[in-house]
Amino acid sequence: MRTLGRKSHVTLSRRGSVLMLMVFMLPVAITLAAFSINFAYMELCRTELYVSVDAAARAGGREFALTGDAAAAKAVARDAAGRNEVASTGLQLADGDFVFGESTRSALEQRYIFNPSGSNPNSLQVTGFRTTGSMDGPIGLMMPTVLGRNSFEAQITARSTQIEVDVALVIDRSGSMAYAANESVNWPSPPNSAPMG
């Protein structure tokens, strides 16, 4: 005689397991998101600082090349820096942020070497600071207190150099220059040549 038995199925309740996973993973996810946001913001502010300092160096260097007046060059550079915001604030430049010097190079394929004590100043070096002790101070982070930091520091240096170039325009109206590339050099002069004399 065969007896049919019943199989017992035990179903374990899994309710709340996702909640426990979120409890452990949510702080990690928030920390990683905050770190990513801060890193992107830091790179943005460094780029803004680069643009501001570069604009100041170009504007001040041009003024210095045209007038030779260091005070006027600083004023123009400060104006240019203030028009380009860094972390939503116009960059302020102190007198110590400007260095006038001489840039030279020994060959065309080499870079210019800046000498702050050169006898013939032709360059302006501008350094923008967003550090502790600078006029604008350090830059506050978007997500403070992440990894124990509330701000970061940055500084960028740019130089503008005046290059003197001699340009000569030479016009030769002699008969020897009247021949086209496909004409032979012989006399008399070709019909399109300029009158000699």
Major sheet attributes: 4 strands, antiparallel
* CA radius of gyration: 35 Å
Stretches with pLDDT under 50, minimum 5 residues:
none
Shape: elongated
Strand content: 15-25%
Compressed to H and E, one letter per element, the order equals HHEEEEEEEE
Number of helices: 2
Structural class: alpha+beta
Task: Tell me roughly what share of residues is in helical segments.
Answer: 25-40%
Name the strands of the widest sheet in spatial order: 4-3-5-8
Quaternary class: single chain
How many β-strand stretches?
Answer: 8
Please, what is the average pLDDT?
85
**End-to-end CA span:** 139 Å
What does this structure look like?
By secondary structure, the chain is an alpha+beta fold. The protein has a domain at 22-98 and 128-154. It is 33% helix and 17% strand. It contains two helices and eight strands. Helix 1 (17-67) runs antiparallel to helix 2 (70-83). The longest helix is centred in the N-terminal third of the chain and has 51 residues, at 17-67. It starts with 16 loop residues before the first helix and ends in a 36-residue tail after the last strand.
